[in-house]
Design goal:
The complex is a heterodimer of chains A (about 375) and B (about 350).
Chain A lengths: L7 E5 L11 E7 L2 E8 L7 H5 L8 H5 L6 H16 L5 H30 L2 H22 L8 E2 L2 E2 L7 H24 L2 H7 L7 H6 L5 H5 L6 H4 L20 H25 L18 E8 L4 E8 L5 E7 L1 H5 L3 H5 L4 H11 L3 H5 L1
Helix pairs in contact in A: 3-4, 4-5, 4-11, 4-14, 5-6, 6-11, 11-14
Chain B lengths: L3 H15 L4 H38 L15 H10 L11 H10 L2 H7 L16 H9 L1 H12 L3 H32 L4 H6 L6 H4 L1 H14 L11 H4 L9 H25 L15 H20 L7 H33 L2
Helix pairs in contact in B: 1-2, 2-13, 3-13, 4-7, 4-13, 5-6, 5-13, 7-8, 8-11, 8-15, 11-13, 11-15, 13-14
Classes of the chains: A alpha+beta (about 375), B mainly alpha (about 350).
Organism (chain B): Desulforamulus putei DSM 12395
Membrane topology (chain B): Multi-pass membrane protein
Pfam families (chain B): NADHdh (PF00146)
Amino acid sequence: MTIKTEEFLLNLGPQHPSTHGVFRIVLTLDGETVVKAVPVPGYLHRGIEKIAESRTYTQVIPYTDRLDYLAGMLMNWGYVIAVEKLMGVEVPERAEYIRVIVGELARIASHLVATGAYAADIGGLTGFIYTFRDREEIMDLFEMISGARLTPSYMRIGGVAYDIPEGFIEKCRKFLDDFPKAIEEYNGLITGNEIFQARTKNVAILPAEKAIDMSLSGPVLRASGVNYDLRKARPYSVYDRFEFEVPMGAKGDCFDRYYVRILEMEQSAKIIRQALDQLPEGPIKGKVPKVIKPPRGEAYAEIESSKGIMGTYVVSDGSTQPYRVHFRRPSFVNLGYLDEMLKGWKIADVIAILGSIDIVLGEVDA
Amino acid sequence: MENLFVNMASGMRSLLASAGLPDTATDFILMFLKLGAILVYILISALWLVYMERKVSAYMQCRIGPNRVGPLGLLQTTADIGKLISKEIIIPRCADKKLFLLGPILIFMPPLAVFAVAPFGKDMVAIDMNIGVYYFLAVASLSTVIVWMSGWASNNKYSLIGGMRVVAQMVSYEMPLILSIVGVIILTGTLNMSEIIRAQENVWFIFLQPLGFLIYLIAGVAETNRAPFDLVEGESEIICGPFTEYSGMGFAMFFLAEYANVVLVSVMATTLFLGGWHAPFGLTFIPSWIWFLLKVYVMIFLFMWFRWTYPRVRVDQLMEFGWKVLVPLSIANIFVTGIGKYLYQTIRW
């Protein structure tokens, strides 16, 4: 007797527990093995870039919160730095330091979500709760400094909205002191687990050349062994004053992509510690006119966000509203190689690979 | 206390006999009463285990867990079941309606049937079958067919994948499960559960068969489809596997059956390896059935501990581990046990 077999189509998403939102992948499967994968983004598209054209420059800031909503501070930063470049505004030193502190806190928060969600993707739900427990501390810090937890809208063109409140520095230091113990816990619970390693090591190896070709950035690129971090390569703000390393992976498999984030969190904690020590006194906002009217022209500026290089392109026609705003969203660009990466792996690996890229749908779909 | 349930049964018997019923009728009624008692135990146990699972997981995850409904949240699962009963049972348009509805009805049958031979305490076994272990293995694996059937009948791709995984997993893990038990059977020379327990009066078989116990434990987790072998449900991959399309009470039945199966595997582990109702350290003032249940719940706690610690293995790793590690190990275990028994019998060593 001959059994006829055929490939079948599985529509993974947009509503699926592990696509980190509303991402959709159309998989062609041969049993459990992926033959072809077609990513379909766009289910969370809100047209932020178009909305920005009918808002004033300051009014765009809350919309940037909703790009990568796991690291709203960094998204704020990526936008304001472009407008500042366009206007030629000088940002006071204290504001730069505060930006570094909240930015690195946001990076830790974002990586904590990535780590925990990755553990949940692999099937260990407990890791998820542990990272979220510690992320909560950062959310509390954000609430102290900006009044909001997830969408702070804290940065302003030329500085930050409010000065550091009383008790913030102590609380932040306490968090940093407790953090190494927390990392140890993650390593014990997630990283060191045999099953976790079996599931992630040697899965979907991304060669360095390919990663560069596809313009990937952030932890995904560095996991492949490429030493490129904007904070080191082209220091913006005051990053040239801090001592830190750029963690890199050796192989570029899922495990490296996961582990680079853990190492990066340690480095971020190191940066925050230094920034708190060096924090100067002074104003928190530069000399910016009440009505922001950048001169006619265009500017592009980029920062190293938690997911990769976040760039903002702003065109001004001399009015109070931007003529055009474009965001280079790292999550979206990092997805570029996904279809190739998924080929030949099992359904369970699809989730592991997607999780290791760490996408945020707010950013992918803008 | 020791003979509480045994006395209740004999009291019932004499009551029925004094009412002038013939012996066969008394036996018949008594059998039904025993099975009814087991049914009540399983259902209450399943409810309790859902609560226990939530509490255990909560404490492992630095949470508190249910604490609002009833004292300490004890009525939480009851409330949940009430909610699920009141929900609409949705039948997908393209599903095979009869098989789809049959799944949740049948899923409770195998565990119920197997519990009939479970020795809950000294002389406390509903039906003392002389092929108890064999019966357990044969009937317990039937639930695979039911899960597969429900997955296929749902006409959903996730369900189908889950259903296929059930079969693959059962075939690969039933083997080491059976082979790990063979060691115990070699030692005792019987398939009767009560006699296996009686043979452990001096030393529990976990000490004579440590490897067998380990293999049984791993294969047992796989049999109950719990983490790290919960590929069948694989929440983060295939939504809920074969149960994806079920709603309301249909889903609840699968949910509770999972816990009934966990109890079942733990009962077997206790019977075969942990000395059944025998009291350790001569603590015989505590009734045997309390000891038995205590051991069962320790085993269940172990299963929960696994579940809330380990991530999920991949389907090919699962197969590889089953066939390339567990099966050879369990065969080696049988070999060593056989030689050991032979040496013991010939040279009295």
